[in-house]
Amino acid sequence: MLYQVVIPAAGQGKRMKAGINKQLIKLRHQPVIIHTLKVFEQDDWCQGIVMVVNEAEREQFQELLEKFQIKKVLSIVSGGAERQHSVYNGLKAVKESDFVLIHDGARPFITIEKIHELVKEANEHGAAVPAVPMKDTVKRVSQGFVDETVERSSLWAIQTPQAFRVSLILEAHERARQEGYVGTDDASLVERIGKKVKVIEGNYRNIKLTTPDDLLFAEAILSVKEER
Ligand code: CTP
Ligand code: MG
């Protein structure tokens, strides 16, 4: 079952405080984005990759693709102000594919097994996302005091890749644009037009590198991988 993948990598990485785009930080001699891209490069179901980058970093990314021999990148498009705008630009570059995955460039530990599970679910339901049950208790807080404790058993932390039928996610993004809605993930745009999103159990190791501590977790995940 074939798909194309849009990889947004055009953020500023403010919370990482690294002074460079976090996708260019090296983990075991390879930039984060290369770890991410290699998974798709090695997946036979992946027909092509659309990367979304900042214009100012385009050349840097292009050089990395050559250096690490990533061959499936079909196009590199420019990012927008918000992640959603970046993804939209990427989606417009997806051609001749029934299914598309949208995957954060800063999430290098996705597995081919999960990707295939998600594509199959997207084939059945139109949209599918990976998620893990929340470990911490979650409370709504305002001005330093608790408003309420949210019931945890139904709370899941949502990850990427998110898998969609191309026509459905394009419609969802177009509608959000027309209506001025900006969400924090792509599935939320599908939800708001009344369509169902299937949730599958993800993996706690599929972290998004967001703050400096995540680099420590990433090193630990990589050492376990190498032991195998
Ligand atoms: N992203 C993007 N375009 C944007 C914002 C984010 O392509 N305008 C990408 C990031 O590069 C990242 C993914 O979307 O791979 C998830 O976003 P996030 O983790 O929030 O990354 P940043 O926005 O770069 O980080 P921060 O919010 O800390 O600035
Ligand atoms: Mg961000």
From TrEMBL:
<dbReference type="InterPro" id="IPR001228">
    <property type="entry name" value="IspD"/>
</dbReference>
<dbReference type="InterPro" id="IPR018294">
    <property type="entry name" value="ISPD_synthase_CS"/>
</dbReference>
<dbReference type="InterPro" id="IPR029044">
    <property type="entry name" value="Nucleotide-diphossugar_trans"/>
</dbReference>
<keyword id="KW-0808">Transferase</keyword>
<protein>
    <recommendedName>
        <fullName>2-C-methyl-D-erythritol 4-phosphate cytidylyltransferase</fullName>
        <ecNumber>2.7.7.60</ecNumber>
    </recommendedName>
</protein>
<feature type="site" description="Positions MEP for the nucleophilic attack">
    <location>
        <position position="208"/>
    </location>
</feature>
<comment type="pathway">
    <text>Isoprenoid biosynthesis; isopentenyl diphosphate biosynthesis via DXP pathway; isopentenyl diphosphate from 1-deoxy-D-xylulose 5-phosphate: step 2/6.</text>
</comment>
<feature type="site" description="Transition state stabilizer">
    <location>
        <position position="15"/>
    </location>
</feature>
<dbReference type="InterPro" id="IPR050088">
    <property type="entry name" value="IspD/TarI_cytidylyltransf_bact"/>
</dbReference>
<keyword id="KW-0414">Isoprene biosynthesis</keyword>
<feature type="site" description="Transition state stabilizer">
    <location>
        <position position="22"/>
    </location>
</feature>
<comment type="similarity">
    <text>Belongs to the IspD/TarI cytidylyltransferase family. IspD subfamily.</text>
</comment>
<dbReference type="Pfam" id="PF01128">
    <property type="entry name" value="IspD"/>
</dbReference>
<comment type="function">
    <text>Catalyzes the formation of 4-diphosphocytidyl-2-C-methyl-D-erythritol from CTP and 2-C-methyl-D-erythritol 4-phosphate (MEP).</text>
</comment>
<feature type="site" description="Positions MEP for the nucleophilic attack">
    <location>
        <position position="152"/>
    </location>
</feature>
<dbReference type="GO" id="GO:0050518">
    <property type="term" value="F:2-C-methyl-D-erythritol 4-phosphate cytidylyltransferase activity"/>
</dbReference>
<dbReference type="InterPro" id="IPR034683">
    <property type="entry name" value="IspD/TarI"/>
</dbReference>
<keyword id="KW-0548">Nucleotidyltransferase</keyword>
<dbReference type="GO" id="GO:0019288">
    <property type="term" value="P:isopentenyl diphosphate biosynthetic process, methylerythritol 4-phosphate pathway"/>
</dbReference>
